[in-house]
Specification:
This protein has helices at residues 2-14, 36-51, 64-73, 84-94, 147-157, 160-180, 220-225, 256-265; strands at 23-29, 57-61, 98-109, 117-128, 134-138, 141-144, 191-193, 205-206, 209-210, 229-237, 243-250, 269-270, 272-274, 277-289. It is an alpha+beta fold. The strands form three sheets. Strands 1, 2, 3, 4, 5 and 6 form a six-stranded mixed beta sheet that branches.
């Protein structure tokens, strides 16, 4: 009996360990516009993402035609400037964990140094369907003397190594969201929420005011993309007037979200007051970005 028990334990000790089931992440790839460049970039991204190594995460691409039809069905027209709620609604319609959207074109350009050339670009946005957050933005681009050469260079730049960054970002975001499911994010009861758009502050509350208004910069990436967008940030301001927390609730990519968050964190406020006493509040700050006018 002892011998058989010992033998059984030995066999169990040397039995192969079952492979840990990989995390499955569904990804919807929406249209990147209606141009021939957009179609070819979309096809290349689909092929490379399907073959990408995301470590312990298995990427499952949904049917592209069905994803696009679902997006159109809820009125999505290709915007790259969404609120978290809009982004979640779009993700729910597509029925995925994450989705890729963006814009890809080949357009003529000119400059004083180069009278005429072509730029092919692809603005790629990876969005979480569960949280609505912008996970990653990217804008690979290529220039050449002809449209076909510029597009060929862009497609060559979108190689397996480049798209591996997208797969890694998807895997990291999926792991982070898995952890966040167990982490409640409640607003302290002592913080008065004024962040609802169009909401009126209580009559007995004096709202906070910045001692000095700082304007976020229009980034070089936004300038190259000629982006025009609005970034909304929910900002928690303590009873001492200091910024405690910043959360972007309408994103735009091209570095504008990070620029807004960084700028807001550098600001100091005259604290909100209720009955003459300073109180902590949460407010919504909105920043509109427009292309700078070109000087003649």
């Amino acid at each position: 009996m002892y011998f058989r028990t010992a033998l059984l334990l030995l066999l169990l000790a040397h039995a192969p360990t079952p492979a840990r089931e990989s995390r499955r992440v569904s990804v919807g790839l929406l249209e990147l516009g209606s141009t021939p460049t957009a179609a070819r970039v979309g096809e290349r991204l689909a092929k490379l993402l399907a073959a990408a190594d995301a470590g312990g995460t298995r990427l499952v691409l949904l049917d592209r035609a069905m994803s696009t039809a679902a997006a159109r069905g809820v009125g999505y027209a290709g915007s790259l400037n969404l609120t978290l709620a809009e982004a979640r609604s779009l993700g729910a319609a597509v029925g995925c964990d994450f989705y890729l959207t963006g814009d890809a074109q080949t357009i003529p350009r000119s400059s004083s140094a180069r009278p005429r050339y072509f730029e092919a670009y692809a603005s790629v946005f990876i969005v979480s369907a569960r949280t609505g957050r912008l996970v990653l933005w990217d804008r690979p681009a290529a220039e050449a003397d002809t449209a076909s050469a510029a597009e060929a260079a862009l497609l060559a730049a979108l190689d397996a190594r480049h798209v591996a960054r997208y797969a890694e970002a998807l895997a990291a975001a999926a792991a982070r969201e898995e952890r966040e499911r167990f982490e409640a994010e409640d607003m302290p009861a002592s913080v008065i929420d004024l962040s609802a758009e169009g909401g009126d502050a209580p009559a007995d509350l004096r709202e906070p005011a910045p001692y000095r208004r700082l304007r976020p910069a229009y980034t070089d990436a936004a300038s190259r993309a000629e982006a025009e967008a609005t970034v909304d940030a929910e900002v928690e301001i303590g009873a001492d007037g200091r910024v405690r927390r910043v959360r972007v609730v309408r994103w735009a990519g091209f570095g504008l979200d990070e620029e807004v968050a960084s700028t807001v964190r550098r600001m100091n406020f005259r604290p909100a007051e209720r009955d003459g006493e300073p109180v902590a509040v949460r407010v919504l700050l909105r920043y509109n970005f427009r292309r700078p006018q070109k000087t003649p």
